[in-house]
Amino acid sequence: MKYDVALTLYEGKGSVAKNIESINALKNLKPSDKVFIKPNIVFWATVPFPKWGVITTSSVLCEVVELLKDYGVSNITIGEGIVTLKPNDKETAAHAFEYLGYNTLAKRYGTKIINVFDSSFEKVKLDDDIEINVSSDALHSDYLINIPVLKTHAQTVVSLGLKNLKGLLNIPSRKKFHNPDETKNLHYMISRLYKLLPKGTTIIDGMYTLERGPGFDGKPHRSNIIISSENTLSADMVGAKVLGHQPDSIPYLAYAAAEEHRDADLSDINITGMPITDVAHYHEYTFPYTDDGTLPEKLHAMGIQGLSYPKYDLTMCTYCAALNGAVLTAITLAWQGKPWDEVEVLTGKKMQPSGNKKHTILLGQCMVNLHKHNTTINAIPVKGCPPDPMETVTALHKAGIEVNPLIFEHLDSAPSYFMERYKNKPEFDEDFFTIKG
Ligand code: SF4
To answer: Strands, E, within 178-218: which ranges?
Structure first.
């Protein structure tokens, strides 16, 4: 069997429709279908921040909604679950939906917009042992339109259609995905999730592609690429290849391919549009670390001594990941050229102390729980899930690293500093993230 994938360029309005129609990717859609659209809003801030390669463009989303209306579909829901550091935060998602023009789509076309955390979840078995809670609205739709961004991911190499669906889980299930069990790790979980959801079409938005994703601190490129397929795995394999990564080298794509009794080498994919080689470009997926993995290369190059900050692993979930970036930035700014007093910072759910440090900062409740009985370390716990930013400052100070507390007090506004990089670069156009009323 051959799987059709359309790979074309975005050349203005009508490009998405042209892409989809080139392989008739909506042929199984019925006008009476209840359609659920899952964009990717991996992060949101109420201050200006770089969205290029991070968030699904509203231009692509709007075109998809208009195409569905042309097909006669009237029951359309757009749903997303945006994680923020504040529990029960409703304002951030509401701000995102308004800014991105989703409310305009609601007024214009009667599209429903839901924050999945405001709606219900349903227990579903991922395998014989693992249960997860998935958005009921998505589960009970007839047709799923999945619109991820064409980007890399620091933990999973790429984040495309399969990975985008993790945004339909409740928070405990998302944490469960970062399982410390090696045999049922994050890759395993992602490779099974898409099979639980209704079939439909995946449309990968590659208007902007992103290196060192998935967040606003990555490096975006204006790439103008659209990829679609009725088979999510096929779209993802082509997407990975366009980003310069072999699909069979990415565990969750290889696992999913094995489940579908396929090879993850594109041999059963029929590409319409243009050859992958016309647009493929290697995208780095992670910031480099030292060979022994104990310090980001950038900190090592600065000459930082007396600190071990092992590279995050697959078990670190979004909450800790968000804080982790701030901690590294604060440490970088606190360096005065004098070696610190043998400090290590452990993260995620399974890191072990080196055994030769004077201070061991345990960042997050998982690390605190794992090492609570360890009498061989001088533990400095940062409790909580998410870990408390100001407790993090206290812990770092206790270990002799005088980070500036202001960085942690103003975490909400930090993303706006990254906008500086995009000044006078018209290819990074904010208009793609709005829908004119
Ligand atoms: S403490 Fe961190 S790693 Fe543990 S569940 Fe919470 S966010 Fe995930």
So the answer is: 200-211
Of all atoms in ligand 1, which is nearest to the CA of residue 318? 7
The structure tokens listed for 44 are: 């949101």
Q: Which fold has domain 3-285?
A: Rossmann fold (3.40.50)
151: β partners: 159, 210
pLDDT digits (tens, 9 = 90+) for 16-43: 999 999 999 999 999 999 999 999 999 9
3-state SS class at 207: strand
What separation in Å is there between the alpha carbon of 277 and the centre of ligand 1? 40
Give the residue, out of 83, 85, 320, with the most ligand 1 atoms within 8 A of its beta carbon, to mutate for a pocket test.
Answer: 320
Residues ≥6 apart with Cβ < 8 Å to 82: 41, 42, 43, 44, 92, 93, 96, 115, 167
Rounded to whole angstroms, the Cα distance separating 420 from 268 reads 44
Closest C-alpha to ligand 1, atom 6:
385
> Measured in angstroms, how far is the CA atom of residue 363 from the centroid of ligand 1?
9
Q: How far is the CA of 191 from the centre of ligand 1 (A)?
A: 21
Distance 174 CA to ligand 1 centre (A): 10
Using left for φ > 0, alpha for ψ between -120 and 50, and beta otherwise, residue 322 falls in alpha
Ligand 1 pocket by Cβ (under 6 Å)? 175, 178, 316-317, 319-320, 348-349, 364-366, 385-386
Distance 389 CA to ligand 1 centre (A): 14
**How many angstroms separate the CA atoms of 217 and 415, rounded?**
8
Contacts of 204 (CB under 8 A, 6+ apart): 147, 148, 149, 150, 160, 161, 225, 226, 227, 228, 235, 236, 239
| pLDDT tens readout for residues 143-180 | 999 999 999 999 999 999 999 999 999 999 999 999 99
Helix (H, G, I), strand (E, B) or coil at 239: helix
Whether the Cβ atoms of residue 406 and residue 417 lie closer than 8 Å to each other = no
pTM: 0.97
Q: Could you give the CA distance from residue 40 to residue 318 in angstroms, rounded to a whole number?
A: 15
The residues, any chain, with a CB within 8 Å of residue 271's CB and separated by 6 or more, are 5, 6, 7, 238
Ligand 1: which residue has its CA nearest to atom 4? 366
Radius of gyration of the chain (CA): 22
For the chain, what are the domain ranges? 3-285, 297-417
What is the 320 CA–ligand 1 centroid distance (Å)?
A: 6
